[in-house]
Each structure stands twice: as C-alpha cells, then as structure tokens.
Amino acid sequence: MDASFEYVFPSIRGVQAGREYYVSMCPLRLIPKVFLFDEEELLPEVRAQRIMNHARIPEITRYLLENRDDYVFSALTASIDGSVRFRALGEEGEANRVGALHVDMESRFIINDGQHRRKAIEEALRQDPSLGGETIAVVFFLDRNLERCQQMFADLNRYAVRPSRSLGLLYDHRNNMAQVAKLVAMKSETFKDVVELEKTTLSPRSRKLFTLSAIYSASCALLGTENADSIEEAGATCCEYWAEIGNHLPEWQFVRQSKMTAGEVRRDFVHSHSIVLQALGVVGRRLLEVEKDKAWKKRLQSLGELDWSRTNSRLWEGRAMTGGRMQKASHNITLTANLLKQTVGLELTLEEQRAEDAFMRGEHAS
C-alpha cells in the first residue's frame, strides 16, 4: 500500500465472529465523498442494500437541520472493499486496540446500514456547510464478497423492530401534539389510568381502554392540527371536550369505577375504538367552530341516546365496521363522523355529503 495515497481513520479495533472490525468517528463532510451505496439499477440479487426510498430523505434532513443542538444519529455501518492495515498505538493492552486504520484510496466503502442517513447528511451539508465539522460514528467491516455484504444487511436488519406508535409519542418531546396527547392521557379525568402508553394495540385482557396513539389522533382531529402552538391551551381544550364526551358514555365511567372491564367494553361497544374516537374529534372541531360560550356541550347530549353496541350493525356496519370488524380507513372515519354530526345536528360539508350519498347508494361496499 502506498502511504501517500490512503485514508487514515482514528479507530478502535474489535473482534466479532473471529473477524476484526473497526469503529471510527468521521466528520460529516467526509460521509458523502467517501461512502457509497449500491446503484439502484442493479438487480436485487446483485445488490447489498435495499433501493433507497427518496421520500424519507427530506424528513431526515429537516430533522437534522431543525435540531442542530440536540439531534442524534446512530452509527453507519460500512464494508471496505480494498487493502487496509491497522496501526495500533502500542503492542499490549488497550493501546493495542486503539490506533489508525489505513485504507487504500482505491478501496470502495459500501454502506451496509444507514444509506438514508448518509443521503440526508449530504442534503443537509448543501444547506448548511457548517455541519461538516461534526462527526458520526462509523463501524467498518472488511468486505469479503457480495454474498457476505448481503448477509450482513440481512443480519443487521433481522431483529430491527420499530417502536410502537404509542411509545414513540410517549418519548417524543419535540412534537407539541404528542405533549398534548400525553397531558390529556395523564391529567384528564376521562382518560386518566385507562390509557395504554406503550402499545398501539390492546389485548382482550388489557385493563386499558384506549391507546396513547388513539388519543393523539383524536386530539389532532379535534384541534385540526398536528402542531399546537400552546401545549397548555390545547391540552385544556382537549380535556374539557373529552370530559363532556365521557359524561354521555357511561361505559367509560364504568371502567374507571371497576363496574365493567376494559375488555368487555372494547368487545361490546364501538366508542372505545380509535376510529370512533377520531370521528368524535372531527365532530368536536366543528362544534367548537360553530358554537360559542359552551353551547356545544348541549349538542353532545344526544350522543348518550345512541346505541353504541357493536351488535347494532344497522347503525355501524359500513361506517365503523366491515363484516363486524372495526376498521380504520379514512372513509370509515368520515362515514362515522357523518353519523355523529347528524346526531348532534351539524350539517355535512360538500365532501362529507358526497361520501354519505355514496354510502347510502351502497357504494361503500366496493
């Protein structure tokens, strides 16, 4: 190897499965220039990566640029196809693990994990070159062949599991509406102690009646936004509205009073499911727009007269349910909200009326 034409990465040397690998901190400005990803034109069987989803790039780029003081990027993983040598600081102990990784400039660096982060870094540097001095961890493996790279990709992603939407919202301190949803779930007398904060689905034996993700979607529908300006004001509005809704749905109260189990209510009634909760949010948004001085509360009294039982297929089939099963599609939310709007005496918008007309003609079945 010609030492005049090589990359030198300060690195720590480790061993996995009997093979050496190296961890280094690389300046962001180096990432787009050095690290490659497979050409998208290649067939899947001769690539070592998935095709890049370009729709993800703007979101990641925006995250990086808008959170300069507290963004977090996990390490990239790359294979080196070429000549390398590791020069340790010493021959014994820890000094033998720390040193410099010398890589021939003719070598290729192929991203095994992190291609979207790499592309987002490239886009962010174009908009803000000052990012170039910051660093990201890179784990280097020595490339054996295409088969080895493909196996690495499969292994790196084998046990990767996205956190549930509820857990993501619980830990999200940047999204104001996530903060509002948490405030409502924890402080509202309607939802306090009956909201599952981690899981997005509830088992039949769960003691919780709602999920945090359902509270989030319903509150966004109520406020008509996913970006509340004031967490306190938005939270107060949501708590007041959902408290009034709870006054007309006795089964919600029965769960808190231990007169019914959450599983029984979810099994027998539609109003504890996320689609109906979101539809109630849609109704609430319109009520708050047309009614002033709390007059909207009187409108909600008629909700207590509805038969919310899932056995009432005449009312809910084709709207909140299909074949007796709860549905979450957007048209189901619209049709459920239509029914609730008509119940509280609200007019439908032109778009909602078109959906209602199609439903009445039986086109919903298609």
TrEMBL record:
Domain of life: Bacteria
InterPro entries (alphabetical): DGQHR-contain_dom, DNA_S_mod_DndB
Protein name: DNA sulfur modification protein DndB
Organism for this UniProt entry: Natronocella acetinitrilica
